[in-house]
Amino acid sequence: MDFIGWAWLIIIAVCVIIEAATLGLATIWFAIGALVAWLIYLTGVNLHVQIMVFLFVSIITLVLTRPIAVEKLKIGKSRTNADSLIGEQVKVIETINNINNEGTVKARGQIWSAKSTNDEIIEKDELVVVVEIKGVKLLVKRK
Length: 143
Known about the structure:
Transmembrane segments: 7-32, 38-64
Number of helices: 3
Structural class: alpha+beta
Keywords: Membrane, Transmembrane, Transmembrane helix
Helix content: 40-55%
Number of domains: 2
Protein name: NfeD family protein
Strand order of the largest sheet: 1-2-3-5-4
GO cellular component, one term: plasma membrane
Pfam families: NfeD (PF01957)
Strand content: 25-35%
């Protein structure tokens, strides 16, 4: 293997190391592109084609798969304690009536103001699910 072959392997290694250190899903796509370029190199294709393949594969994987991967892995988004209530079942401790701007629920030992998502009245002691948080109010719906 000549210099070009080793260069592709070094690019792969550097990109993987940077990705492992940062976990930002930024350089892994270039490692994939370099891997494909290295495989193309093994077939004897000239350097210009290898570079074009590297750029094409890197950009395509970056553009098409990074947003999906970021969403699935929740990169860069750490949920706050309040955000982690979304999807949880909570108990109504004061009847929820959006028209009268009334209603409270108890979630993890804390009292929260609450509104129903569809303006229905939800009676005290019913169990509801937290759908969203708006300011200091939980938006809930019947289970």
